Amino acid sequence: MNPHWRSFLESTDACFAADVPEVLHFGDAQAELLAASRQTVLVPLTHLAILRASGDEAKTFLHGQLTSDVNHLAQGAAQHAGWCTAKGRMQASFVVWHENESYRMLLAADLLEATAKRLQMFILRAKVKLQVESDTVLLGLAGPQAAEALTDAGLPIPDGTMRATSGGDGTSIIHVDAQRYILAAPVAALPVLWQKLGVKARPAGVPAWRWLDVQAAFPLVSLATKEEFVPQMADFEKIGGVSFNKGCYPGQEIVARTQYLGKVKRHLYRLSADIPLTAGADLYSPDNLEQASGKVMLGAPSPAGGHVALAVVQSNYAGNLRLGSRDGQQVTASAVNPA
User: Would the N or C end of the chain have less CB density within 10 A of its end CB?
Assistant: First the structure.
């Protein structure tokens, strides 16, 4: 985490988790969750990071590595993408957007180092430069006044969801869904930007943003779920994260075979429970004695009380799920994209 970014957040009374550099809240976690459900919030996205690919062959390189179609990703457009192992399991997920001569990739911060290192191995002699954007900070802006807050801050609004644009101070704005925007800003622009956006948006911790992710069914692979899912298990093909018309990429044969043979038995579900639901936690069913019936992808406390999550679940056992063991706490599941 950029030390200037952390120092700034600490000056705004941000409370960090003890084990990871993640903002939990700004003094009142429950009030911040309620604000995320009703008002406009400003969230330091300390759980996310950016990797940039540039150079004459960046487009060709990424097109040959990612599950979505980078060749036809227009200037100012954004899309979901997965990066798979040879066995078709996602080792990272991205929101990729085309900005000027570069491609910027938003991913889980706990996968940044390993992803950059492994992607670099495949560049060989290609004219591609990978860069970890350590001097860029990420902000999440969400709620009914989000667009108005951007305008008041002198920033442009992208012309639709999964579109990106840039402001004069070097800040990029991605309209990810409904009333949610992600801002990638230079550290130097942060104090003024935070102050301007804060006029209409209340600061909130990362759990509030994760709750919004659950509501929007926004899938994110993190270290806890690395190499756990074929893209279709997380419904990536339904949000434009997989192209079945492009050429080869790692795991492409398995991803395609899974699609065309109709062998996907696990899909994305929303969960609710009385106890915390953390990424990587296994789900079991008393009706399935052979193996786990699902895995939590991301979880968050709910403004209404209890906890919610996105999880990949074996569909025929979704009606009877328990957390951690077959005798564990009961969990309620509902399909994100009902059949």
Answer: C
Fold of 265-333: Elongation Factor Tu (Ef-tu); domain 3 (2.40.30)
Where are the chain's structural domains? 1-261, 265-333
* Average of per-residue pLDDT across 274-281: 96
98-122 per-position pLDDT tens digit: 999 899 999 999 999 999 999 999 9
Q: Tell me if 87 sits within 8 A of 229, measured CB to CB.
A: no
- What distances in angstroms separate CA 246 from CA 25, 105, 120, 122, 145, one per listed residue? 43, 19, 22, 19, 39
Radius of gyration of the chain (CA): 20
pLDDT at position 339 over 70 = no
Of 178, 183, 131, the C-alpha closest to 156 is 183
- In which residue are the tokens 């009914």 written? 144
Question: 3-class SS at 106?
Answer: strand
Q: Euclidean distance between the first and final Cα of the chain, in Å?
A: 41
pLDDT digits (tens, 9 = 90+) for 36-64: 999 999 999 999 999 999 999 999 999 99
Fold of domain 1-261: Gyrase A; domain 2 (3.30.1360)
On whether the CB atoms of residues 322 and 284 are closer than 8 A, the answer is: yes
Element (H, E) at 32: helix 29-38
Reported as type and span, the H/E element at residue 51 is strand 48-54
